[in-house]
Prior knowledge:
Layout (H helix, E strand, L loop, with lengths): L1 H7 L14 H5 L4 H6 L3 E2 L2 H18 L8 E4 L6 E4 L3 E5 H6 L3 H16 L2 H30 L2 H40 L5 H16 L15 H13 L9 H15 L2 H7 L7 H13 L3 H14 L4 H14 L2 H14 L4 H12 L5 H17 L3 H13 L3 H14 L3 H12 L5 H17 L14
Parallel strand pairs: 2-4
Antiparallel strand pairs: 1-2, 3-4
Amino acid sequence: MEKINQKLTGSKKNTVSRLIIGFWLILAFLPLRDALGQMSIISDEETEQYLAKVIRPIFQTAGIPFNRNKIYIVNDNSLNAFVGDGNNLFIHAGTLLKADNTDQISGVLAHETGHILGGHILRQKIKNQSMQEASLASLVLAGAAAAASGRGDVAVAVMLGSQSSLLSNYMAYRVEEERSADDAAVKLLYKRQTSPQGLLQFMKKIQKQNALNGIEESDYFRTHPVTSERVRFLEQAVKQSPYHQDHSLDNEFQRIKAKLYGFLQEPAQTFRRYPPSDTSIAARYAQAIAYFKQLNFGKALRMIDALSAEEPDNPYFYELKAQIYMEQGNLKAAKEAYGKVLKLRPDAALLQVDWAQAALAVSPSPAELKNIIAVLNRSLQQRPSAMGWLLLSQAYDQNGQTAYAEYAAAEYSLRIGAADIAKRQAENAQRKNPPSALRLKLDDLLRRIKNTYPDLNEIKQPRKRG
């Protein structure tokens, strides 16, 4: 069962806060590599493709370059979304599961785009640095007070007073940024000729969730403050808008919502949410996944076959079918199913990796190995991934290209944080007298290791032979 859930999700690490408050403070200033290490990230082609359709036009309207690889789905059930360094956009699975329609998702993403337009990430980093310096000053002041009085409680009082003032000022600053992002979101949606109704609806969802969780909307502890003032602003924006809600992606949204629900919830919960009496495509999709998680492969396959008969050009039904075959150990059938997926979505990097995994497991011929290597290289150019590098290493090894296999293995090791192993593998590859193109890649890899992990032993470049 764990293997099935890991098919959709990434790292099992998940220290992401369950509360809406405080979350932004924890992660916003971390480098992307460290921030991702704090979260469990969901990788799913269908969901990411949907989000790209929603966010791309918003970014285009805002004049922001769009990169689909900078969209991350966080495996967390809370209502939240945020932006980080480099315009990386994070959206919680709970936001997708609890939204009612695409307009609500669009509103949330427009709000986060407003933070990018406002330059809030850089400003927050500067503000955070000043807070750290002020906190250090308060520590010095507290120590001096304690030394002068000989009482530890005086130091505590000084610290609490200083920290309270700092946090109060910081939160007031954050409130202003949220208002600014709301205003930018409304303007972006107007330019898209879309009503801000979805953003208003979702804001009220967060307000209700905060009330259920006992979170007070004071002016003190909050990072995405949902106040009556902000709700009133959006209500006025909706009244003034001449535009209507856009429902063109709602069917697609309901499907990815059902898919996420099926994979992330227990089967019993899925069947309560999507009972057999619900015969919509989204419901049957979720039901098939629930049967899959129950290891009722026959029932799951029959449901997927029925869905594929209705929509023969839907690649994601074949993808689920391939996953079921992989879980069964029917590797040949899995490879064939993934082959159908790639015919429908030939440039989907995540699906290319899945196909390669199945293809490598069925004793490929030399010609097939060459094709697998080509497909994996295309996938990694589009979207680098640890699994892609691992499979590429295996493919090169099976093909007798040991230097290339060591290089790909080193890239894999670096991506999972095993820099010392990556360094050894890269140096091993260099000792195999690789061709000049590969040697350049190895030199670059070793430089990246040295720059990212300066505490490792000094890298010694092996002598060139001949």
